[in-house]
Amino acid sequence: MWKNKKLRAFTLLEALVSLLVISGSVLLFQSMAQLLASEVQAQKNNDIKEWLLFADQLDAELSRSQFDKVENGKLYVTQGGKGIAFGKSNKDDFRKTDSSGRGYQPMLYGLKEAQITKEESLIHIHLQFEKGLEREYVYRVEEKG
User: Considering the domain boundaries, does residue 1 fall inside one?
Assistant: First the structure.
């Protein structure tokens, strides 16, 4: 009774081709996941490098300056007889300007918020980045006197 009926079924060749396609897809997915993970790591390292460059640059600027005051979210110093201000701009960067806010020298991009406070002889610069990263820069100043 069953001998006369032909049943549709997969051949061995069709099964091997489908297994080959599935394994190729899995390998492609795995390599794309590894590429994405390495890109995320590279971006994280780039953020760290940018922060270290900013910290070194700010340290160099402050070491050759004389502290004046912290006011309205800005750090004011005197450098070579000229008033200089450091702080977050209206955009997304932390910049160096003259004491009246003119001039433009961005030091760090991608900021969401920046708070500058002074406690005794320590300046605290707390930065929140748009990507969620938070960093704090602390610098000891000598008061004029």
Answer: no
Residue 125: in which H helix or E strand, if any?
A: strand 122-129
pLDDT confidence of residue 34: 92
Element (H, E) at 54: helix 12-63
Which residues are within 8 A (CB) of 93 and not within 5 positions of it... i.e. 6 or more apart?
A: 106, 107, 108, 109, 110, 111
Residues (pLDDT < 50) of the chain are: none
3-class secondary structure for 26-53?
A: HHHHHHHHHHHHHHHHHHHHHHHHHHHH
Q: Which domain holds residue 84?
A: 12-140
Q: Is residue 3 domain-resident?
A: no
Closest CA to 107 of 132, 86, 127: 86
Tally the domains of the chain. 1
